[in-house]
Hints:
The complex is a heterodimer.
Chain A: E1 3-7, H1 11-22, E2 26-30, H2 35-45, E3 50-51, H3 54-60, E4 63-66, E5 85-88, H4 94-97, H5 109-116, E6 121-125, H6 131-136, E7 148-153, H7 156-169, E8 172-177, H8 198-205
Chain B: E1 2-7, H1 23-39, E2 44-47, H2 60-69, E3 75-78, H3 88-101, E4 106-110, H4 118-121, H5 129-145, E5 148-151, E6 159-163, E7 175-179, H6 183-192, E8 196-199, H7 209-222, E9 231-239, H8 243-265, H9 272-278, E10 286-288, H10 290-304, E11 308-312, H11 320-355
Parallel strand pairs in B: 1-2, 1-11, 2-3, 3-4, 4-7, 7-8, 8-9, 9-10, 9-11
Antiparallel strand pairs in B: 5-6
Helix pairs in contact in B: 1-2, 1-11, 2-3, 3-5, 6-7, 10-11
NADP nicotinamide-adenine-dinucleotide phosphate binds at residues 7-13, 30-33, 54, 67-70, 72, 75, 89-91, 127, 130-131 of chain A.
Amino acid sequence: MHKVAILGAGRVGTALARRALSAGYEVRVATSRPAADNAFMLQIVAPGAIAAGAEEAIAESDIIVLALPLSKYRTLKPELLQGKIVVDTMNYWAPTDGTLAEFEGAASSSEVVQRFLKGTRLVRSFNHMGYHEIEDAARPQGHAERRAMAVAGDDPEANLVVAAFVDRLGFDPVLSGGLASSRLFAGGTPIFGAAMTRGEMEENLGLSSENLV
Amino acid sequence: MELGIYSFGDVQRDAATGELGSTAQATRNLLEAIQLADQVGLDYFGIGEHHTREMPASAATVILGAAASSTSTIKLGSAVTVLSTDDPVRVYQQFATLDAVSNGRAEITAGRGSSTESFPLFGQSLNDYDELYAEKLDLLLKINESETVTWSGKFRPALNDALVVPRPERGTLPIWLATGGNPHSSVRAGLLGLPISYAIIGGQAHRFAPLADLYRRAAEQTGHGPEKIKVSVASPGFVGDDAKRAKDFFWTHWHAVMEQIGRIRGFAPPPRFHYDTEASGAGALFVGHPEEIAERIVTLHKSIGHQRQFFQTDVGQMPHRDFLRSIELLGTRVKPLVDAELGKRQRETDEATAHA
Ligand SMILES: NC(=O)c1ccc[n+]([C@@H]2O[C@H](COP(=O)([O-])OP(=O)(O)OC[C@H]3O[C@@H](n4cnc5c(N)ncnc54)[C@H](OP(=O)(O)O)[C@@H]3O)[C@@H](O)[C@H]2O)c1
């Protein structure tokens, strides 16, 4: 589990690419443009990341990270992602995404995304942290200031893989439960945008120690 | 290095009664702030389009036009113009008029901006955001290139040999592209040979250094000369006579805004320790006494090499007198320190190259 594909090369995508590279992952980055259009940019902002087309990046990788605007999720090809472990970092925010009927009033955008990406092992994480903190706030294991990162998904094995990924990137993973539980760290919850340690987040999620990674 | 201010035209709150001041008074206060910025030798003042009760600066060129007649050297611009919901022809006419009455001091900064209230106001859909922006920027740049324009697009009637006047005295208007850190925006500005403005409003400011590098390399590869390539940095900032008082004071106002935004966007406002980290060292909040701010600007300059830095100061219904005091300190205390330090460095580099 050392190959990562990141779909999206914006603020979140490039921050995650740099973190994953320094954690020793092989990283491919794809956007809606051809790989050649991203090569130069990646060479400078995420040196070491491989510019790839989405299809190749997905096929080559163990973990696929969705770091594109939620408004574009329907441009993803579900058939390419069958059986893959997919990390959903996306949030719904109408003033930038535009109004999307299926997300209006939905408790968790990830459940909507999972319905579209049938057959993928979707795990929501990284969505509650500002993009620059993914880099600024990353800390080694055991560090007193290490922050917690919530992880939610319906596939227990995928959850563990993503938890290990989160850990290697510099955060304490906290499993909140199935994908539906990702509403507990969506926008408007106390976790969204807050800096919490593992203990604080567990308490906030009302978790007992059995649930923990 | 050019130093300046940007504002969304925030209304003030009466400290005694707690009442929100009028939007008309806030507009007059903003004009006064621009005049002071000019008097104390600042280089740039930008107005960021907003359409709210707290931030009523919806018609930047009108305020800047008034400022043009009572200022002499300060550059007058937008920070930013929400191009997607405006008509590029109208935007250009207004800024070219501003350019005429200010004797060549007008600038446009186009960008997404932090405000989306203009979309329902002018009947545009946010679902079209990217397309609207790309199309309107294309037209704006075309108008800047020549006074007669032939153009067609999706969101605006076509133009056939249409005359757009007045024309700027220097031939063209500076048009900056504003970005919040998406690398493709840096590439786009570089390919187009447009100056770029980075909004660095949180986190560690030097994380934008690779983006500035990307921008410069994209411009170089495209063959744009160095005279076209400029980088500016826009950040929250407040200068006070005393460092601790300045930090405590700005915290209350900054925190108030973060609470307002957080309520709307559903995130928890950052705690004080987070603010303290960002308001020091390489953080994005330039809050403190003049020496400290000058030093931090110079340090950032080492990594980003920017030509201009400007600050949003009057946030969270800050009393007008504190806004004015900060402008004064930025012009009279910070600017000379920054000029001296960067001048010294420049001489050292020049000498080193001369001896090499
Ligand atoms: N900003 C934050 O702090 C933050 C924090 C947590 C989560 N998020 C979430 O993370 C996501 C990305 O946010 P951002 O701020 O990084 O956005 P951004 O800077 O606008 O970048 C979006 C990226 O997605 C790419 N993209 C668009 N369509 C695509 C497709 N079909 N396949 C692959 N890539 C595609 C874009 O490139 P092209 O247009 O060239 O394809 C661009 O590189 C959003 O869903 C957001 O809700 C953001």
